[in-house]
Design a protein that fits this description.
The chain has eleven helices and 31 strands. A hairpin with a 5-residue loop joins strand 17 (199-204) and strand 18 (210-215). The two termini are 73 Å apart. By secondary structure, the chain is of the alpha+beta class. The strands form eight sheets. A five-stranded mixed β-sheet has the order 17-18-19-20-24, covered by helices on one side. Helix 4 (431-444) packs across helix 5 (446-454), helix 8 crosses helix 10 (520-533) and helix 9 packs antiparallel against helix 10 (520-533). The chain has a domain at 399-547. Residues 473-540 form the Small-subunit processome Utp12 domain. Belongs to the UTP5 family. This is 4730_t:CDS:1.
Length: 549
């Protein structure tokens, strides 16, 4: 189920099957992005989709009720129209989904007992009509969310749809047969027969004088006369043919019919109302048993770059419409239901104003629906480059380096070995000078000298630092590890600590705990975590008495 928000065509709603329930997505046809994404909390399938506008309270009902004299003045200030989508459910309820709120704002229930077939809004958004498989038609008050009237059909099938006239005085119901109802008296004005299968779509013309219908597994579009001067038996004025079975139907304000076939092509028939009524007046249609068919005035197809495959058109609607003149633009949704592409197509020749007989568009068919192919090369290059992983880095400590030995006989060194040349100046440095500089720096700030060695080591390297400190018996490195107070770092380090280093760690940390009681809070945190993580291993060790406090 998919549909444009005709006549604007700025939004496109589509219902697809999710993992365990139906999913509604609303696309912006200008950008191709998803504006709204909704799935019912309950596992109720959506059975129909309909666009409309309803009046909502701008302040969510928090405004006090004004006096009767000021009520009309306050309505325009506190209320506004909101674009909504009506979704029929399998359980017989109807939910009204607001695009502005991104949630359900109204629920119509209690009248239908079987799945909803169709739903239509009135123009003012105050009323609506629904039909269901229980053979009932219900007139709803959308403001109060209750039933105004209800009547039952005498139809041959439970699958039927409805269509509201533009003046909102008549209603069409269509199953195997079509019935035209007077909404004031709830009486049948006309009945039409002609389709052999279940009717899937029916619409009024702009002046409500004719209606157009299509049916399942049927490639004919039937035109019916809806005027009240021919008795109760409806008249079939004409039939239009497609290359394949018809799937969807639409009509412009200038009475141009748009139909999409199951092959994915778009078919246009111009000036349907005037041609059909002219044919009916020129001959006695009541006595005429056969009538001529008519082929499309314009066929729009979309093919891929190679010209071998047809890219199906999912849905289409007229845009930039005028009352009595065809502007010649339709908006189409093509491609996949996962990520459809939208395009505005002109079907009228700009020079002479005539319909283009056949319009073939060559478009690129994406290989991946959710992949931006413009950046595909950059993404492939990025995928080949391996990202930096700190867990695979070997941390080098001071135990990995050997202290350089100073030659015994310094006099054997040449002048080039113990002289640094900087431009024209020479600076002579002896080993005694280096020792004195290191001793002075360490004496001045001993903690800074220790921390500066390891200040670049962090994150996942803490476990490797601890292992190296225990392996090399490096007290400075071990104390640096114990200074970490982040619970996540302590937990991760304790979990990754090999079991053979657990007892050496406890021996060393208990000794540190005795030497530095002031740091006992941090050290005790390390002891607790290591005991909790490695308790199973420690219980198997016989020489465990030394850790009992």
């Amino acid at each position: 189920m998919e549909r444009f928000d005709s006549p604007e065509g700025d939004l496109f709603a589509i219902i697809t099957q999710g993992v365990d329930r139906h999913r509604l997505r609303v696309f912006d046809t200008h950008t191709g992005t998803v504006n709204n994404d909704f799935s019912s909390e309950k596992e109720d399938n959506f059975t129909c989709l309909s666009w409309g506008n309803v009046i909502i309270d701008d302040l969510n009902g928090k405004v006090d009720a004004p006096p009767p004299k000021k009520r009309k003045r306050r309505i325009s200030q506190n209320q506004q129209y909101s674009k909504v989508i009506a979704l029929g459910l399998q359980n017989g309820s109807i939910i009204i989904y607001s695009l502005t709120h991104g949630d359900i704002i109204k629920t119509l229930s209690g009248s239908h007992t079987l799945p909803i077939n169709d739903f239509v809004f009135t123009k003012d958004g105050k009323k609506a009509y629904s039909c269901a498989e229980d053979m009932n038609i219900v007139e709803w008050d959308l403001e109060k969310e209750n039933v105004i009237s209800k009547w039952k059909l005498d139809a041959q099938t439970t699958k039927f749809i409805i269509s509201l006239s533009h003046d909102e005085t008549k209603l069409l119901t269509a199953g195997h047969t079509i019935k035209l109802w007077d909404l004031q008296t709830k009486q049948v004005l006309k009945s039409f027969t002609g389709h052999a299968s279940t009717i899937t779509n029916i619409i009024f013309s702009s002046d409500d004088d004719i209606c157009v219908s299509i049916a399942e597994h049927d490639r004919f579009i039937n035109i019916w006369k809806c005027q009240d001067d021919d008795g109760t038996q409806g008249v079939n004025l004409a039939a239009y043919t497609l290359d394949d079975n018809a799937r969807s139907l639409s009509m412009s304000k200038a009475n141009t019919v748009l139909a999409i076939s199951e092959t994915g092509s778009l078919n246009l028939f111009k000036n349907v109302s005037s041609i059909s009524l002219k044919a009916s007046s020129s001959s006695n249609v009541k006595k005429k048993k056969k009538y001529t068919t008519r082929t499309p005035d314009c066929i729009v197809k979309v093919i891929d770059d190679k010209g071998t495959n047809i890219i199906p058109i999912l849905s289409a609607c007229f845009v930039d419409e005028l009352e009595n003149k065809e502007t010649g633009f339709v908006k189409i949704a093509r491609g996949s239901t996962v990520k459809p592409n939208f395009e505005k197509v002109r079907f009228i020749n700009e020079e002479n104003g005539e319909f283009l007989q056949e319009l073939t568009l060559k478009r690129h068919q994406p290989s991946g629906f959710l992949i931006d192919e413009s950046n595909l090369a950059a993404k492939n290059l990025k995928a080949k480059r391996k990202s930096y992983e700190e867990s695979k880095v070997n941390v080098i400590g001071i135990s990995n380096f050997e202290t350089p030995r100073i030659p015994i006989n310094l006099n054997e060194l040449s002048i080039q070995d113990n002289t640094l040349v900087n431009g024209n100046k020479k600076l002579e440095i002896t080993s005694n000078d280096l020792d004195s500089l290191n001793y002075a720096e360490t004496k001045k700030n001993p903690q800074t000298s220790v921390k500066s060695k390891f200040q670049s080591i962090q994150g996942n390297s803490m476990q490797q630092m601890l292992v190296q400190a225990l392996h090399s018996n490096d007290d400075d490195l071990f104390h640096l590890v114990l200074e970490q107070t982040d619970p996540d770092i302590i937990n991760n380090t304790a979990k990754k600590l090999p079991t053979k280093y657990v007892i050496p760690f406890l021996e060393k940390v208990i000794l540190r705990f005795q030497e530095k009681p002031n740091a006992g809070v941090n050290i005790l945190q390390w002891i607790k975590v290591v005991l909790l993580v490695h308790m199973t291993y420690l219980m198997t060790v016989l020489l465990i008495d030394f850790i009992v406090f």
